[in-house]
Amino acid sequence: MRNTDALIDANVILNYITERDDPFRDGSKKVTELCAGERFRGYVAFHSLSIIWYSLRKRPLRERRFWLRNVC
After folding, report:
1. Number of domains in the chain
2. pLDDT tens digits, residue range 13-46?
3. φ, ψ at 23 (rounded to 5°)
4. Residues of the domain holding 13
5. Would residue 71 be called left, alpha or beta, if left means φ above 0 and alpha means ψ between -120 and 50 degrees?
């Protein structure tokens, strides 16, 4: 059962994907797991998709497409 809706910032998603070593990494992982486990209904702003795509530009095209598909 979903308890609430949440707008997920691009940085939260990027922290999860890239496993950046910053103070918000654990929180980003938890938010992502809650959305995947359907405790939250996560929303991503449309402009965040281009930010994520650009930030992952050094990764192979197949990997970028994989992450973008999974985010959506």
Report:
1. 1
2. 999 998 877 788 889 989 988 888 888 889 999 9
3. -65, -15
4. 4-71
5. alpha
